[in-house]
What we know:
By secondary structure, the chain is of the alpha+beta class. Helix content is 47%, strand content 21%.
Amino acid sequence: MRGTPKNQNLWIIAPLLIIGLIVSVGFYESRRSYNLIIDSARHRNAALAHLVAQRLIGAFREIDYIMRDVHDHIDQEALAFSGGAGGESAAHLSEILLNKITTHPWLFGLGIINTRGRVVGIVSKARQDIVDPNFSYQHYFSHLASHPDQDRHCSTRFVEPSNGDLWLFCARPVRLQDSSAFHGVIFAELHLSYLDQLFHNPDLAPRNAIALIDAEGTLLFHYPEAADTIGKKIEVIPLDEEHADREQPFQGALISPLDGQRRPTAYYPLADLPYTMAVTAMLEDELWQWRFQRTIYLGVGILISGFMIGLALLAARLSNARGQLVVQAMQLEHRVLYDKLTSLPNRDMLDERLDQAISASKRAGLYGALMLIELEHLKPLNDAYGHAVGDRLLVEAGQRLLHSVSEVDTVARLGGAEFVVVLVGLKDDKDVSKEHALAIAKKIRGFLSEPYHLILHSAADPTAIIEHYCSSSMGIALFIGKEAHQSEIFKQADTARRQAKEAGRNMIRLFESGL
Length: 515
């Protein structure tokens, strides 16, 4: 009978110890799941920030290419440009600008300023002037005039006085062929509302907010819409102030302009542009679910049997959620680095592979080569049978390119009907390397010229097969590590490709300095 109180205490203490253990484990699991949500959000933010930043950089590059193309035509109009527009030259410049402004959806205005700061040519998709020249045109004209070595200038935002619309401006200096001196400015006007077309995609960021910030921390764009806060300064909060490199992507937090909440954010500065992409995780659903699970978890913890069942289900759910996040991250990474149609490396991975090829060339002292290949006769196929058939031809062309080179070489797609091949480890002798590169180019040309047998998938005959022939124009640029620069290599290969096209169909040209 004396042991009865001890037994009663044991029955009391044991459940208390079990409940204490369950509560401790529950607290630990709660913190772990919370950290998992935050870490997953940061990983998703970083991947998405890289994706949207590359999209925006690509758009600015396209606009820059348009301005460069206009520059090439200005070279031919040098006399009229220097002396002031007028007559047939002015009409020709206006015709050039009108043709170029329709080639990009963001391009809302395009113009030219001469050395005296006078607008000698301007076109717009609107009937009225875009922005008052007193605070826009003169801004980047005076900036580039005072920075003659700068190749491009992108402005902060400008507000249109009439309706409050927001604009960005990009400009390039004009340097005529016979001189590198400053001869004026080519400028492009971009309406910030067009960013909606780039980011308004539910599949892209269903649980994220995307913001564009200028160099001064001013909010230029926000998705979802946050119109009342556009143009205001926002606080950039890095995770570690000492180690935050503002020229490289970094993790931090941001006070949301939507509701003032602090959320994990990935910052991605845009290369050569005075802007930063900020991708913020919208975690309301996840955190609500996490709080709900915590409440259930702790409630079930009072009942041992219910706790064990709840713990097993929660662990399985978290494991499944983690696996899904890993799969989504891998898919997003593949989407960032590979072409969606052909699964070949895209421009981002090509830049990385080319850097590696240049480094390997420098270490080994061997030449490498970059081939810029443009397929021809693709438009008639698209017009006759639709873009789906043309896409199948591009996929097969990519496979033919892969089978034409070794495994250490790189085959990538730039977009449209343009492909790139990077050859590595040729020879240490330049002439021998040229012969080797030309031999591979002829081999590739032969493969690409063979007939393509494409399934039509028509309603009348699902198994119909068409035969199509496709030629190509190829430009080749050799490089060796100590002399190689990525931009110059692309420029040389593109020059050689244009020479091949001018020489006729299905031609190969090797870039030679001085030609």
